[in-house]
Amino acid sequence: MTDESARSTSRVVVVDDHTTFAELLSDALDRQEDLENAGTASGVREGIELCRAKQPDVVVMDYHLPDGNGLDAAREILADRPATRIIMLTGNAAADILAQAAGSGICGFLPKDGSLTTLLDTLRHARSGSMVIHPSLLALVGKPQAPEAPDAPALTTRERQVLTLMAQGHDVRANAKHLGITENTCRGYVKSILAKLDAHTQLEAVAVAGRLGLLATSNHD
Q1: Of 30, 155, 171, 183, which has the most beta carbons under 10 Å away?
Q2: How far apart are CA 186 and CA 183, in angstroms?
Q3: Response regulatory domain location, by residue (predicted)?
Q4: Summary mean pLDDT of the chain
């Protein structure tokens, strides 16, 4: 019973130089049955060393840190332990930062002023190889651009519909329900979109689609 409980608990490290935020989040983690506070750090180097020592399942990382940025720390942590799930927080996201995040291997990008419930749910469901990004941040990456680039890949009407929903920050389940298709079918469209846009994640696909002007016409098919 104890072993089963231990296996179902995700150990979380918090890397943030705002002491009050770090303490509040750590306290919240201590109250969760399926999440465990594995320690806090206030900078890039301290966070990397803490992750090497504690080997957490999930890391909550502020983007802006005193001795660097969270993406640099995330790359080094993932180089040491690729299965680590990293959720990045930021108070003032920029499109270029989110574009860099697309290929970094992190699992999520959330606004720092978002709800605690959303953050805890993201920690619970973070998976390596996937990426969750809050709609308010995704909108920065997926701003429509016109006209459509002449070298943009051809997408079917349904692929454009799925792409538009992706750019709005919806997950596969919500997209499938909205379009009246199965989740497996929706995942198939997502895979096709990623292949056509030469993207590895949904965030990267939205960023590429925005640059190519594909989002400008997605709602009109």
Answers
A1: 155
A2: 5
A3: 11-127
A4: 82
Cα–Cα distance measured from residue 101 to residue 7, given in angstroms and rounded to the nearest whole number:
29
From-to residues of CATH 3.40.50.2300 in the chain: 2-136
Q: Are strands 132-133 and 108-111 parallel, antiparallel or unpaired?
A: parallel
Of residues 84, 86, 101, the one with CA closest to residue 200? 101
Dihedral of CA atoms 67, 70, 73, 74 in degrees, nearest 10, equals 180
Q: What is the CA radius of gyration of the chain?
A: 18
Over 80: is that where the pLDDT of 140 sits?
Answer: no
Q: Which residue has the tokens 């959330």?
A: 110
What are the tens digits of pLDDT across the range 32-61? 999 999 999 999 999 999 999 999 999 999
Query: Residue 3: pLDDT above 50?
Result: no
Q: pLDDT digit string (tens) for 93-127?
A: 666 677 677 667 788 888 888 888 888 888 888 76
Q: What are phi and psi of 17, to 5 degrees?
A: -85, -5
CATH superfamily of the 2-136 domain: Response regulator (3.40.50.2300)
Q: What tokens appear for 138 in the block? A: 């995704």
Q: What percent of the chain has pLDDT over 90?
A: 41
Pick the CATH number of 142-220 from 1.20.1530.20, 1.10.10.10, 3.40.50.720, 2.60.120.340: 1.10.10.10
CA distance 93 to 140: 8
Return the H-helix or E-strand segment holding 184.
helix 183-196
Residue owning tokens 């920029």: 94
